[in-house]
UniProtKB/TrEMBL annotation:
Keyword ATP-binding: no
Pfam families cross-referenced by the UniProt entry: Hexapep, Mac
Organism: Phenylobacterium deserti
Annotated ranges, domain Maltose/galactoside acetyltransferase: 5-59
InterPro entries in alphabetical order: Hexapep, Hexapep_transf_CS, Hexapeptide_acetyltransf, Mac_dom, Trimer_LpxA-like_sf
PANTHER family, per database record: ACETYLTRANSFERASE C18B11.09C-RELATED (PTHR23416:SF23), SIALIC ACID SYNTHASE-RELATED (PTHR23416)
Alphabetized UniProt keyword annotations: Acyltransferase, Nodulation, Repeat, Transferase
PROSITE patterns: HEXAPEP_TRANSFERASES
Taxonomy of the source species: Bacteria, Pseudomonadati, Pseudomonadota, Alphaproteobacteria, Caulobacterales
SUPFAM superfamilies in UniProt: Trimeric LpxA-like enzymes
Single GO MF annotation: O-acyltransferase activity
Function: Acetyltransferase implicated in the O-acetylation of Nod factors.
Any single GO CC term annotated in Swiss-Prot or TrEMBL for this entry: cytosol
Protein name (database record): Nodulation protein L
Record's keyword annotation contains Transferase: yes
Amino acid sequence: MRTEKEKMLAGELYNANSPEVQADQAACHAWLARYNASLAAGAQAQRELLRELFGEVGEGAVIRPPFHCDYGFNIRIGAGVFLNFNCVILDVVEVVIGDGTQIGPGVQILTADHPRDPAERASGLEFGRPIRIGRNVWIGAGAIILPGVTIGDDALIGAGAVVTRDVPPGATAVGNPARVRA
């Protein structure tokens, strides 16, 4: 029988209140307190903190505090990635951000999802769908990337866009819901 954490990582329905999952969240919260207090510490010190928790941190990657995530260990960011202030990554499953991607302030990257059936949802179970963001992507301030979305290399996501579907490489997507401009 698999643990709730194993189910979570596999993208299956899991109980987020299980002791193992809660312990991982508590450890992340303690790390977030340290990271978010590091604003004046400089990029290199912040990168070292990121490497303590994240699955992968590329050379020259920068995340400006304050920053928030669920677990951290499911996040992989490439070389030269930049996330501005107040970004949120709900990483119940993997989030991959490719080299050179620039992410504006207040962007939310959300892998966490919930059952559509009300009775199943009331049981308290949830699941996640991975998000993949390609290389050299620009995501404008306040955009929201929903569970299961893939954004191709060189794409541009407009400020405030709500991305509900995959965005092809090189495309520009704007609006709510985000639509690819012709």
